[in-house]
Design a protein that fits this description.
The protein is α+β, with helices and mostly antiparallel strands. Helices cover about 40% and strands about 20% of the residues. A 5-stranded mixed sheet has the order 3-2-1-4-5. A hairpin with a 4-residue loop joins β2 and β3. The longest helix has 18 residues.
């Protein structure tokens, strides 16, 4: 018997979160035999990041039952069951945490569908619940709500059980208290913010051994400490303490992560620091059709760059579909004559010369130009670290000079004022590609030229 569950929590410091939404489906291997779904009054404020993610507001949970009022029902519905969830270690930790407040020790076997999916459905672009269910054709409603995510997890679990000819699921059950989240680890995780930035793991010699970034530092670090893989086991073994820097801007976090990986070469991600990214390359033609192609390590620079090939492929597919380009020309489909997309009306026929090179190439050039610098000297505006603050990035004569923060718009209107606020960063091709990808993916409303 299985208890498929999903939990949403308030966010905040690890160990201080509270449950705000819970769904449990009791599953006997064939059908759902019982279910429990409820919002929960956490008796504390919900983090703004979580409110935006889940659409659960403080007002919504105000009249919901408190955890102690539903604690007995949870014990009853999970009695004799193995807990099943996507990243279930988080859900299990949250239940343990809530029951400990009541003086009760809650202990169950558990199965993590993330780990099982990596074994049984390899080579996926992502193992997040949203991406995985989308790739498998599993419908998911109410994303980031407990009931919707638990339902999707149940469908995923059913597929995994069907694929599990070697009985991997039976061998991968976790027993008892999750040993990966011990008190010594919780001390390392406390005080980490749920904000965007870069984090650093240090060993006992005060050496940086790992650098990472995330839009939610606490959540990402907690993932490393909850995961069961070789990389995480080394992180947990050698880390003495953790520091972080909130950036507010995801672009700035990416730039700082890249630069500091090159400077420090931390031994636990030294390979990552040296690896060559995959790019989408523009291959122009004077007489025929322009092409876009995925590759890496070429002499020419790509117009977009990605750390994983799967991400580059996904972006090229998106571009090809949105701009009605030919997937055959872009290397996404093999065909002797026309591509399949032409038959479906998603390609205008460049593959069979039904569309003129001039019209087709105009759309390709429009795509490439989206990632080009719009001016010689300009400023890009992004999110800051707090309300009322903004991050800015300064490009002068086509070269990235650095970043800074400001609160009043007139502070970055001239080169002289920018010079007072800027933190210089050496520019290189990788940093420029990060900026160009940002320009490509984001609306260019927060960009303005500096003319003085």
């Amino acid at each position: 018997m299985y208890a498929i569950l999903d939990i949403e929590a308030t966010g905040g410091k690890v160990g201080e979160e509270s449950i705000i939404d819970i769904a449990i489906y009791k599953y006997d291997g064939n059908e759902i035999v019982d279910q429990f779904i409820s919002l929960v009054n956490p008796m504390r404020k919900i983090d703004p990041f979580v409110q935006k993610l889940t659409n659960i507001t403080n007002k919504m949970v105000l009249t919901a039952p408190k955890f102690h009022e539903i604690a007995k029902r949870i014990i009853e519905i999970t009695e004799g069951c193995v807990l099943v969830g996507h990243n279930v270690k988080f859900d299990y930790r949250m239940l343990n945490q809530e029951y400990l407040k009541l003086g009760y020790h809650y202990e169950k076997e558990w199965i993590d569908t993330v780990e099982i999916a990596k074994k049984l459905i390899p080579n996926q672009e992502s193992y997040s619940l949203g991406k995985l269910t989308s790739n498998l054709g599993i419908p998911i409603t109410d994303r980031h709500r407990a009931s919707g995510d638990a339902r999707a997890t149940l469908k995923l679990f059913q597929i995994l059980r069907d694929k599990d000819t070697e009985k991997i699921i039976q061998k991968r059950k976790g027993l008892g208290t999750d040993k990966k989240v011990k008190e010594k680890y919780l001390k390392l995780l406390e005080d980490l913010p749920t904000k965007t930035g870069v984090f650093y793991f240090y060993n006992r010699l005060d050496e940086i051994i790992f650098i990472g970034r995330s839009s939610n530092i606490a959540f990402k670090v907690n993932q490393y400490y909850s995961a069961k893989n070789f990389e995480s086991s080394k992180i947990k073994r050698y880390t003495k303490y953790i520091t972080y820097e909130v950036t507010g801007s995801e672009l700035l976090a990416a730039i700082k992560e890249y630069n500091e990986l090159q400077q420090n070469l931390p031994r636990l991600n030294a390979t990552l620091a040296k690896q060559k990214n995959y790019g989408i390359y523009f291959l122009p033609s004077k007489r025929s059709y322009h092409r876009l192609e995925i590759g890496r390590g070429r002499k020419q620079a790509p117009f977009l760059s990605f750390s994983k090939r799967s991400a580059a492929v996904a972006m090229l597919r998106k571009i090809t579909n949105e701009y009605l380009l030919c997937p055959k020309l872009n290397g996404l489909q093999e065909a002797e004559t026309n591509c399949f997309s032409y038959e479906m009306g998603n390609c205008r026929g460049a593959c069979v010369k039904a569309e003129s090179p001039k019209d087709y190439n105009g759309r390709v050039e429009e795509i490439v130009n989206k990632a080009a610098y719009p001016f010689n000297t300009f400023v890009i505006i992004d999110k800051g670290r707090k309300v009322g603050e903004h991050a800015f990035f300064y490009i002068e004569e086509g070269v990235f000079k650095g970043y800074g923060y400001y609160e009043l718009h007139h502070q970055i209107k001239t080169k002289e004022r920018i010079a007072q606020l800027i933190t210089p960063i050496d520019s290189n091709l990788s940093v420029e590609l990060l900026i160009k990808k940002f320009l490509f993916l984001n609306k260019q409303e927060a960009i303005f030229e500096i003319v003085d």
